[in-house]
Amino acid sequence: MAKLLEGKTALILGVANKWSLAYAIAQAFRREGAGLLLTYQGERVKETVEELGAELGAAHVFECDVTKEDDLVRIADTLKSQGRLDTVVHSIAFANREDLSRPFVDTSREGYLLAQEVSAYSLVAVARSTAPLMTGGGAILTLTYLGSSRVVPNYNVMGAAKASLEAAVRYLAHDLGPSRIRVNAISAGPVKTASARGIKDFSKVLEAVAGHAPLRRNVEPAEVADAAVFLASDLGRGVTGDVLFVDAGFHIMGL
Ligand code: NAP
């Protein structure tokens, strides 16, 4: 059977370690035949991501802090000389730890803006710099969470950032649709990653999902990754501007 992403090139932002959702996505994309380009935020994770990139057969591993416009421009310039880009996976978020534990009403102006910049605006910046490379059409994916539209205690400032991110998905889908570029989000159920560990009482969220989700369990990163394969592949060609839940069905529950 033909591989679903054969001949496609994917830029994946947000691999920090083996637990990152972006890492599971990179593994699934490789399984399906995609060429991979990875990014890392800074020196702290450079070595780890370069090792993971080598293991995954990535063609390039770039430094990219999404708050730095120059980093995005540099990547776009490098890629321009190397041919077409088909898929971009934006798997990035950040908020100050104290804003993921104290009451939301106490969120500082700086903390709110930081979460918005890294976790939501960055999708717009990434789309602007990479869309011109998607000359044959393409797919942009991002990762979101139920806390965008429901109150999940302690998710707080990140909930506001994810609401903004999901709105950005819709507006980008509208802008880029005529260029045959689709823009979608996957709303993943909770997964124990470095980012998730920053949320106070995260283990209680895992317990609640395992107890109440229709499938009575949490999701595996590989399940999120397979949904990403679908959205990035031609199987997802009619889907844009959407949020696809991969959360064992938890979001349908009222009680
Ligand atoms: P993760 O492994 O910690 O990934 C988050 C990534 O964001 C890291 O690679 C981190 O890099 C990167 N990042 C933060 N600030 C950045 C910046 N300024 N520039 C570039 N990269 C930056 O955690 P994850 O859970 O896989 O998160 C990936 C995405 O999935 C996030 O959008 C998250 O909100 C979303 N999500 C996660 C869950 C969950 O339960 N885990 C559920 C739903 C959605 P550094 O580590 O180097 O800072």
Explain this structure.
- With 255 residues, the protein is α/β, with parallel strands linked by helices.
- The chain has one domain: NAD(P)-binding Rossmann-like Domain (Rossmann fold, 3-Layer(aba) Sandwich).
- It has helices at residues 21-31, 43-56, 69-80, 109-130, 156-176, 194-197, 202-212, 221-232; strands at residues 9-13, 35-40, 60-63, 87-90, 138-144, 181-188, 243-246.
- Strands 3-2-1-4-5-6-7 form a seven-stranded parallel sheet, with helices on both faces.
- Helix 1 (21-31) crosses helix 8, helix 3 (69-80) packs parallel to helix 4 (109-130) and helix 4 (109-130) runs parallel beside helix 5.
- It is globular and about 50 Å long.
- It starts with 8 loop residues before the first strand and ends in a 9-residue tail after the last strand.
- The structure holds NADP nicotinamide-adenine-dinucleotide phosphate.
- Residues 14-16, 19-22, 41, 44-45, 64-67, 91-94, 118, 143-145, 188, 190-191, 193-196 line the site of NADP nicotinamide-adenine-dinucleotide phosphate.
- NADP nicotinamide-adenine-dinucleotide phosphate is lined by residues 14-16, 19-22, 41, 44-45, 64-67, 91-94, 118, 143-145, 188, 190-191, 193-196.
